[in-house]
Design brief:
Layout (H helix, E strand, L loop, with lengths): L5 E10 L11 E9 L3 E5 L6 H8 L7 E6 L2 E2 L5 H7 L1 E5 L10 H12 L6 H11 L4 H4 L8 H12 L6 E5 L7 H16 L4 E6 L2 H5 L3 E4 L6
């Protein structure tokens, strides 16, 4: 794979909510491209459409005008469940881990959903946890017994469980202190620069933007 391969392209995208007025678009004329091997930040004030754009990129919402391509394939023409379960990994601000499961069980569940075959799921989960700075002992704890930073590391490990090319992160450091934020950003940087993934972070944090390779800014009520 080429280092600078474009994996995602947003072309002339407009979006408005179902109950919005005809010309009341939350996103207007969006044209972005994303390459492997880079960390991107999408910043903007509340109401600028950051999370909406993430929903479009992830295929959770497909009622948009314009085109969004994963490589050469338009998302509207793809099996979006398969796309989400194999090509992209998603990391949420609130972690979205199942609290009654251990960290390792959360990661294995993601493997099961992807339907990709693994020789030893538990061992793979442990390897993923170690890659984000967690040990096996922590992996056997229920996630509510982990700190916020540890839970976010588990969420990142979970998003990597089926080796996606794109990592989408929605305010992944919003609940973390500055030191932990920097540690999480170091993980994202390594994933992009060492493992050649495309990392896209929706954020309002200037620190996240400063440590990204490219920053796209959404303006509220774009014209």
């Amino acid at each position: 794979m080429k280092k600078n391969e474009v994996v995602l392209t947003i072309k002339d995208v407009n979006y408005r909510y179902k109950d919005a007025k005809k010309d009341d678009y939350v996103l207007r004329n969006i044209n972005y491209s994303f390459e492997k091997g880079k960390v991107y930040s999408i910043k903007g004030k509340s109401g600028s459409g950051k999370t909406t754009l993430l929903s479009l990129i992830s295929g959770l919402e497909n009622k948009y005008e314009g085109e969004i391509f994963y490589k050469s394939k338009e998302l509207k023409k793809m099996d979006l469940d398969l796309y989400r379960n194999t090509n992209i990994g998603i990391v949420f601000q609130s972690y979205n881990l199942l609290p009654h499961l251990t960290a390792i069980e959360n990661i294995i569940l993601s493997m099961d959903i992807s339907k990709i075959k693994f020789d030893n799921k538990r061992q793979k989960a442990i390897e993923l946890m170690k890659s984000v700075g967690l040990n096996e002992k922590l992996g056997d704890r229920r996630v509510l017994k982990l700190s916020g930073g540890e839970q976010q590391r588990v969420a990142i490990a979970r998003s990597l469980s089926y080796n996606p090319e794109i990592i989408l992160a929605d305010e992944p450091t919003g609940n973390l202190d500055k030191e932990t934020e920097n540690e999480i950003l170091d993980i994202f940087s390594r994933l992009a620069h060492k493992e050649n993934k495309c990392v896209i972070i929706v954020t309002h944090s200037s620190n996240v933007c400063d440590k990204s390779d490219i920053v796209y800014e959404l303006k509220k009520k774009q014209e």
